[in-house]
């Protein structure tokens, strides 16, 4: 009964879009506006994405670094105005940061509305399109990719499909080829997600946008059980990672401003993505969703089996306290070292860090970016 | 002064050559004769207490500086001058002897020379060097000094004065001139230490362990305390989080961690005082130190720090006047972490770093704009045998009952800074207890006594009966210290950063959880036993522990630590709660795990390994058939294996079981083959299938086999979980491949554990290390069964979960009704 949405309106009904296309929410940053260049990008299947180049003149031999956010986050996660962020550090290091908002970005509307997608689409259309567009601009300058969470998972599928050859190096945070979730998280995601799937289509994180009394209220209440922080957005994210019961970040690592902006930084999580995520997680490797749709045959059925196609050095990093993907990266390093010993894969653990705080944390520049810079420096 | 030094060096060289005006025995004779006739004499020129600047900053390594600056008004030098004033005539011989001593000492020092009134340790000598130095003194000059004496005061001049041929009679000049220091009777009955010392340490036979401080040390302490009175009166600093912080001791264990925590939790720029020649060397030294503690060192760290090459022990920190003035003007916080942590050295040797250094920092804090001074003290200020309580505001120990130089120097620094508070200076005293290894990185302080003790506990499987271990992990200590520095309302109080004390029971239980069942021994028994074992097979990293256990003074410190009460930390706990910091947790087995692993990695600790007697084992028999690859399997093959683990740690961290036993297969050899090295991994690689599909590995066997004629073979076997109903068989059936060493497989087949032998061997037949008690054995057995059962359960359920998910995916996709579509 609580799931029956009553007639009470939480927001005015949107106008049917007849002329406008989905638009990107503006980036939030403290850079010189002239140094930020928005580039119009459509994925191979026509979906509007966001691509941003940072840094005024494109001259010199500055290596380009493409930053991929996680699902429901956005390019904003690399541009936090309140801390020393990755873009600042890369600019100081003489790199040219490129930010892609793939279709899972909260700057785009697709998570909450619009057509559904699977991670196959991201790996097949979004990432290769962005890499191709960047290559057009940078010529033969080296191109690195730094990817977080699902962005990194999709990148692994693109890499093993051979869709983005010739990268100078890949830094993957959180999870790469071998996703591993805690049993409890996996159970909640599979069963609770399944129960909710036919009733709601996404889990919001911003209490203010749905109101105090709504069909999401029980979700917020459940996620808040035994949580330390009173902020409902923080509770559903930090304490529960969209209701899965995993911890997304180490609470102490976020500055107060970032903590207050969580609802802007992370958007609603769609539930219709769960079947693909569940299939990936239960197989413990990245697997393709579409078995019969031949448009996706470029993607390998199992990315780990095709890992031999990776043609670039990979640095796997992960917080030692990653509450969502646990020690997936360490596992990935072990598995690749055994099964594909010819690959240049390294693993670095960031002591004391969780999942998201490796990029959002106020001390991330000190504890995390040093490892990324060292890797870029070695391979540029 | 420089010339004088060179003269004495020349003289010493002449003596060494034997061609000088006097040879060493002659000198010795002369000195002792003079001593006998002139009981008042025990002196050379005043060694200099400290001057320079407004306050202090004695620098034993730079005699010229205080020779020129020592003013008559300086209380420290005055006492010494008075004490030594009327011994001038004899000074020359003592001086010559001192010159000989310093020439010997020079050989053990990086600089190659040592001024007669400079401290051996301050000049860069290590404890090992000191031991060798003392041996050389005895061998070459015939001066047999007790090792403890050398450590107590290692200035050549002072060593020369203490030549044991003629011990100065009581009531010497020093004693007379000293302020009246009542020497109370020993607070505790002379511990049964004496006997143990005799049995275990020939070096310490002569002394049964001092019970009170040496009078000359007390005298020096009082003089040093008076230096605080010279500070100016200061206004309150602005109550704002600091923007520019001076940090000393950043190359140390706590200092390094504190540096990073200050950077992480504030926006401040940190100036690090580092002992080095120039800025490059200082930067390199700091980087090396941070990396050795597994702390980040990148351009991002470097852009927020400035290194200042200098020396805490020197006036104005060894900085130029310009830098000093700039710092006095610009800094808005000073954090003093640097200290010489050595439990063997005496007060004289430690005061430069531990007392005069903090006083110089206080001077800097009081100069220019007022700034708070945050001083890392130590719980050692309570380290008196028999003290009743160690709360934050409880009375400190009685200084005359602190015998170890380290305890004395930390006490003196804290008390001197308390006096500074009366001048208006905001002084925070942060007192850590034992600082344990980092809970995440495992970085530990190799020179820390608690690391040494913990590694000895693990290594020898014995612990001495102590009351409480007041230890907290370095990450917590440094986090709280950083929070105090950044929170103006927290400034100016005393904090115990001791964490939650562990009792003996806690520690014993923790170690048992880690598979290390320790036995508790009486302190003397433990010390004797440990010392005997350390001597029988020396561990390089634990050499300092051996020296500590041999030194009567350091033993006093250990004794006080082990018998002390639990430290309390009400104010710290309130602060932690108010600021939302991670609350203190007991430094338990889980928190220590990483440190244990790193200790083992560095050879200091020892984790149980394959060659040790196993912790738990059981047998497994398998029967089946193999055949050439691709052909039907028709050759019988059986294995009789013993599966064992050396510790639970091995299971949890490596998920690996050791295998021994034999394999019988006529296709390989008529005789049974022996397993030379064998491993079984439980749910290898988290059960990720080898190839895309539903076959999730449960167990992986890898055996290296040797046949009776010396031929070598390998065997690779796997048990798989599948979404099929023959679960019982899945747990028993092993698909194997066998091949000659270094070549591909020649045989393949399947062997199965017979159903009737499974329970008999692998559950009822579990054996546990006979040295454990019955209760420990049952616990070990149950832990193994629970762990293995859970792992198997998880492994078997995996394929079924995938099958179930496939079913769920068949559900009809609902048409969504959400408003925002």
UniProtKB/TrEMBL annotation, chain A:
Keyword tags: FAD, Flavoprotein, Hydrolase, Oxidoreductase
Pfam family, one: Abhydrolase_1
AB hydrolase-1 domain: residues covered: 63-155
Cofactor dependence: FAD
Chloroplast listed as a keyword: no
InterPro entries the record matches: AB_hydrolase_1, AB_hydrolase_fold, Cholesterol_Oxidase
UniProt keyword Hydrolase, yes or no: yes
GO molecular function: hydrolase activity
Entry-linked PANTHER family: CHOLESTEROL OXIDASE, FAD-DEPENDENT OXIDOREDUCTASE 2 FAD BINDING DOMAIN-CONTAINING PROTEIN
Family: Belongs to the GMC oxidoreductase family.
Protein name: Alpha/beta fold hydrolase
Species annotation: Streptomyces composti
High-level lineage: Bacteria, Bacillati, Actinomycetota, Actinomycetes, Kitasatosporales
Automatic annotation (TrEMBL), chain B:
Domain Carrier: 88-167
Gly residues composition-biased segments: 46-55
The entry's keywords: Phosphopantetheine, Phosphoprotein
Pro residues bias spans: 179-192
InterPro entries: ACP-like_sf, FAR_NAD-bd, NAD(P)-bd_dom_sf, PP-bd_ACP, Thioester_reductase-like_dom
PROSITE patterns associated with the record: CARRIER
Protein name: NAD-dependent epimerase/dehydratase family protein
One Pfam family per UniProt: PP-binding
Gene3D superfamilies, per the entry: ACP-like (1.10.1200.10), NAD(P)-binding Rossmann-like Domain (3.40.50.720)
Start and end residues of each stretch annotated as Disordered: 1-89, 161-212
Source organism (scientific name): Streptomyces composti
SUPFAM superfamilies on file: ACP-like (SSF47336), NAD(P)-binding Rossmann-fold domains (SSF51735)
UniProt keyword annotation of Phosphoprotein present: yes
Bias-annotated ranges (Basic and acidic residues): 79-89
Amino acid composition bias (Low complexity), ranges on this chain: 193-212
């Amino acid at each position: 009964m609580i799931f029956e949405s009553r007639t009470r309106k939480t927001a005015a009904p949107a106008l049917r879009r007849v002329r406008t296309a989905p638009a990107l929410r503006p980036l939030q940053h403290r850079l010189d506006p002239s140094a930020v260049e928005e580039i119009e990008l459509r994925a191979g299947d026509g979906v509007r994405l966001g691509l941003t180049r940072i840094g005024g003149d494109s001259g010199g031999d500055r290596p380009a670094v493409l930053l991929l956010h996680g699902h429901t986050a956005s390019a904003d996660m690399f541009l936090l105005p309140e801390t020393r962020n990755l873009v600042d550090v890369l600019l100081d290091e003489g790199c040219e940061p490129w930010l892609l908002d793939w279709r899972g970005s909260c700057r785009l509307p697709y998570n909450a509305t619009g057509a559904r997608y699977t991670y196959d689409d991201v790996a097949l259309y979004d990432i290769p399109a962005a890499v191709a567009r960047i290559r057009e601009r940078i010529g033969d300058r080296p191109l690195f990719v730094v990817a977080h969470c699902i962005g990194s998972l999709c990148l692994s599928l693109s890499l093993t499909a051979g869709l983005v050859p010739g990268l100078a190096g890949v830094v993957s945070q959180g999870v790469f080829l071998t996703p591993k979730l805690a049993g409890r998280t996996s159970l909640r995601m599979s069963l609770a997600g399944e129960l909710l799937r036919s009733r709601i289509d996404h889990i919001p994180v911003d209490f203010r946008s749905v109101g105090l009394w709504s069909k999401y209220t029980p979700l917020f209440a459940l996620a808040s059980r035994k949580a330390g922080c009173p902020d409902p957005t923080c509770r559903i994210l930090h304490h529960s990672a969209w209701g899965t019961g995993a911890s997304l970040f180490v609470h102490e690592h976020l500055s107060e401003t970032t903590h207050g902006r969580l609802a802007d930084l992370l958007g609603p999580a769609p539930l219709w993505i769960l079947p693909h995520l569940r299939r990936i997680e239960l197989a413990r490797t990245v697997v393709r969703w579409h078995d019969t749709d031949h448009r996706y045959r470029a993607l390998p059925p199992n990315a780990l089996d095709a890992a031999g196609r990776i043609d670039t050095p990979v640095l796997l990093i992960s917080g030692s306290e990653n509450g969502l993907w646990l020690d997936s990266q360490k596992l990935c390093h072990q598995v690749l070292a055994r099964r594909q010993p010819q690959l240049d894969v390294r693993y670095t653990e960031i002591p004391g860090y969780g999942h998201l705080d490796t990029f959002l944390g106020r001390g991330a520049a000190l504890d995390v970016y040093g490892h990324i810079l060292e890797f870029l420096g070695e391979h540029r | 002064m420089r010339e004088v030094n060179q003269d004495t060096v020349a003289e010493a060289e002449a003596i060494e050559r034997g061609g000088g005006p006097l040879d060493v025995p002659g000198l010795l004779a002369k000195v002792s004769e003079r001593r006998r006739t002139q009981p008042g004499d025990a002196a050379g020129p005043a060694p200099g207490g400290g001057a320079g600047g407004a306050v202090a900053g004695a620098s034993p390594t730079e005699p010229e500086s205080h020779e020129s600056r020592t003013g008559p008004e300086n209380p420290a030098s005055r006492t010494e001058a008075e004490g030594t004033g009327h011994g001038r005539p004899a000074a020359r011989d003592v001086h010559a002897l001192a010159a000989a001593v310093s020439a010997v000492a020079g050989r053990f020092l990086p600089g190659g020379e040592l001024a007669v009134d400079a401290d051996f340790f301050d000049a860069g000598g290590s404890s090992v060097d000191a031991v060798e130095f003392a041996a050389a003194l005895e061998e070459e000059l015939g001066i047999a000094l007790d090792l403890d004496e050398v450590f107590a005061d290692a200035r050549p001049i002072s060593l020369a004065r203490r030549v044991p041929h003629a011990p100065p009679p009581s009531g010497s000049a020093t004693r007379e001139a000293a302020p009246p220091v009542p020497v109370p009777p020993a607070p505790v009955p002379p511990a049964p230490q004496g006997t143990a010392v005799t049995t275990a340490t020939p070096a310490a036979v002569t002394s049964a362990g001092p019970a009170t401080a040496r009078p000359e040390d007390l005298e020096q302490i009082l003089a040093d305390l008076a230096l605080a009175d010279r500070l100016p009166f200061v206004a309150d600093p602005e109550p704002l989080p600091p923007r520019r912080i001076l940090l000393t001791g950043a190359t140390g264990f706590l200092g390094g961690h504190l540096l990073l925590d200050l950077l992480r939790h504030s926006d401040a720029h940190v100036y690090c005082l580092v002992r080095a020649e120039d800025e490059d060397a200082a930067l390199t030294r700091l980087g090396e130190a941070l990396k050795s503690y597994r702390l980040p060192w990148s351009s991002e760290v470097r852009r927020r720090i400035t290194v200042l090459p200098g020396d805490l022990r020197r006036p104005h920190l060894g900085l130029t006047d310009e830098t000093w003035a700039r710092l006095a003007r610009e800094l808005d916080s000073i954090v003093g972490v640097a200290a010489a942590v050595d439990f063997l050295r005496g007060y004289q040797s430690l005061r430069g770093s531990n007392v005069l250094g903090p006083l110089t920092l206080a001077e800097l804090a009081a100069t220019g704009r007022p700034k708070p001074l945050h001083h890392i003290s130590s719980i050692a200020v309570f380290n008196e045998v028999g003290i009743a309580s160690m709360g934050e505001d409880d009375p400190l120990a009685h200084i005359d009952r602190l015998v170890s130089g380290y305890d004395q120097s930390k006490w003196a620094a804290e008390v001197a800074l308390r006096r500074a508070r009366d001048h208006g200076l905001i002084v925070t005293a942060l007192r850590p207890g034992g600082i344990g290894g980092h809970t995440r990185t495992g970085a530990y302080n190799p020179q820390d006594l608690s690391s040494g003790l913990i590694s000895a506990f693990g290594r020898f499987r014995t612990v001495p009966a102590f009351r409480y271990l007041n230890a907290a992990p370095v990450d917590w200590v440094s986090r709280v210290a950083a929070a105090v520095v950044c929170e103006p309302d927290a400034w100016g109080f005393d904090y115990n950063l001791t964490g939650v004390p562990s009792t003996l029971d806690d520690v014993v239980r923790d170690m048992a959880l880690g598979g290390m069942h320790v036995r508790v021994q009486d302190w003397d028994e433990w010390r004797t036993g440990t010392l005997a074992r350390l001597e029988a097979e020396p561990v390089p990293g634990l050499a300092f522990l051996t020296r500590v256990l041999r030194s009567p003074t350091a033993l006093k410190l250990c004794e006080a630590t082990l018998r002390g009460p639990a430290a309390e930390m009400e104010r710290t706990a309130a602060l932690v709660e108010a600021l939302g910091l991670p609350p203190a947790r007991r430094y338990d087995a889980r928190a220590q795990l990483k440190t244990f692993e790193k200790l083992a990695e560095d050879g200091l600790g020892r984790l149980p390994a394959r060659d040790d007697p196993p912790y738990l084992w059981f047998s497994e028999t398998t029967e089946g058939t193999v055949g050439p690859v691709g052909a039907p399997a028709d050759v019988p093959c059986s294995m009789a294996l013993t599966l064992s683990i050396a510790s639970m740690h091995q299971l949890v961290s490596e998920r690996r079981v050791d295998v021994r036993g034999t394999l019988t297969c006529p296709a390989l050899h008529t005789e049974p083959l022996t397993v030379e090295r064998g491993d079984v991994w439980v749910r290898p690689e988290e059960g990720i299938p080898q190839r895309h599909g539903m076959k999730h590995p449960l167990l992986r066997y890898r055996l290296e086999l040797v046949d009776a004629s010396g031929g070598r073979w390998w065997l690779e076997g796997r048990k798989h979980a599948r979404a099929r109903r023959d679960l019982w068989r899945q747990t028993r059936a092993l698909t194997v491949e066998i091949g000659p060493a270094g070549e591909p497989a020649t045989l393949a087949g399947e062997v199965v554990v017979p159903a009737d032998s499974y329970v008999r061997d692998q559950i009822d037949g579990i054996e546990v290390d006979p040295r454990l008690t019955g209760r420990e054995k049952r616990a070990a057995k149950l832990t193994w069964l629970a762990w293995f059962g859970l792992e198997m359960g998880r492994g078997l359920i995996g394929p079924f979960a995938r099958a179930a998910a496939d079913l769920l995916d068949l559900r009809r996709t609902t048409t969504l009704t959400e408003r925002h579509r």
